[in-house]
Amino acid sequence: MTDNFFTPVANTKPYFKIAFEGFAGTGKTYTAALVAVGLHKRIGSLKPVIMFDTEKAAGFLKKLFADNNIPLLVRESHSLADLKLTMQYMREGKSDVLIIDSISHVWEDFLRAYSEKVKRTRLQFQDWGIIKPTWKTEFSEPFVRDPYHIFMCGRAGYEYVNEINEETKQREIYKSGVKMRAEGELAYEPDVLVLMERYEDVLSENKEIYNQATVLKDRSTLLQGKTFKWPTYEHFAPVVETLLTDPVKIEVAPEGNAALLFRTEEEKADWKRERDRWLEEIEGLLTSVAPGQSSAEKKFKVDALFDAFATTSWVAIQQMQPEQIKDGYEQIRGKCLDAGLVAYNPDMTIAAMKKIEVKDDPKIEEEIKEKLKKSKAKTK
Fold first, then answer.
1. What are the residues whose beta carbons fall under 8 Å from the beta carbon of 182, sequence distance 6 or more?
2. Tens digit of pLDDT per residue, the chain (380 long)?
3. I need a surface site. Which of 7, 112, 133, 206 has the fewest CB within 10 A?
4. What is d(CA 45, CA 274) in angstroms, rounded to the nearest whole number?
């Protein structure tokens, strides 16, 4: 066990990870750019902003970044392989701020690439057992873990449910909500999730068209459920300030490897061999130092097992882990030494026996002396 397995609660991830989802024309890209500009100024970054652009939209943001004297570098691609390399550049310090627009295209290209690789036009159930873990390893986990600020945009799609119509008794499909068109859990990886919508009021006298942001998720709870008309950096500044306040770096114990909790058939066989080996070592040790059936020898063996395993049941000992049985063997060997016996060593072929002290029983003492004589003769 390590002293840093548990640590005090602290701000160990001072990086803003936000996602904007919405249908086309709702202002996802421009809003992400506006907030990125505000964050870039807030942290005083002297590095360019990097944009991973799948929609060739970076050109429309040139004036916004130029007016704020912030260099904007772009990588136009749909490939997850290119996005992975972009994120590697970010980790190496190329920039402090990354804009991904749109992650939906990257996800769709990822599915297409997999389908081409396995030569299928329709994905099968077992394919998702490969696709989802790969996406999680190559993108989702770095997205959460990487030490820089990320603004992610994604196209929205409708969620559907099947329900039985009470009147017609027929199964019908209904729209139940909106979600990001990407891997199912991706939209909830960022700290803040924003739904962008476009409102048009062209029938009333006060004709108006505007973009609106609704905060669907906010880990800080400062903006949870709030709605902003024509959103800007100032609307999200409270969360940014919370993330940037008193950041600390704490050394913690590395995560345990959960794979070690599983055993393959080969590992089970190795485990059984190791367990049986140490059981045999214990039997050999006790037989070597107390080979007879005298009451003193029986008591010695029973006491040795109890001291080592807190039980005298051989069946219970057989159920223990090989490491526990090995530790018990070492304790029994130590008990033999303390009793004045030369403990059995698995590397030796002959074990010598010394006197076991027995009080008030001359017959047993004489029997042990006789066995010692035979043991010494055999050793010679």
1. 103, 104, 106, 107, 154
2. 556 778 888 888 899 999 999 998 899 999 999 999 999 999 999 999 999 999 898 999 999 999 999 999 999 999 999 999 999 999 999 999 999 998 999 999 999 999 999 998 888 889 999 999 999 999 999 999 999 999 999 998 877 667 776 777 677 666 566 788 888 888 789 999 999 999 988 777 778 889 999 999 999 999 999 999 999 999 999 999 999 988 887 777 777 777 667 767 777 888 888 989 999 999 888 888 888 788 888 888 888 898 899 888 888 898 888 889 999 999 888 888 776 665 444 433 233 333 344 444 555 556 556 655 655 554 44
3. 206
4. 58
CA distance 177 to 365: 87
* DSSP assignments along 94-112, one per residue: S-SEEEEE-HHHHHHHHHH
Query: How big is the chain, counted in residues?
Result: 380
Round to whole Å and give the CA distance between 353 and 168: 91
CA distances from 201 to 20, 197, 207, 208, 209 (A): 23, 13, 5, 5, 6
Burial category of 215 from C-beta neighbours within 10 Å (exposed 0-12, middle 13-18, buried 19 and up): buried
DSSP code of residue 11: B
Two tokens, residue 77: 């691609």
Taking the model in full, what pTM does it have?
Answer: 0.68
Domains and CATH numbers, the chain: 17-255 (3.40.50.300), 262-379 (no CATH)
Question: Under a CB-based contact definition with an 8 Å cutoff, are residues 272 and 264 in contact?
Answer: no
DSSP 239-280: HHHHHHSSB-----PPPP-GGGG---HHHHHHHHHHHHHHHH
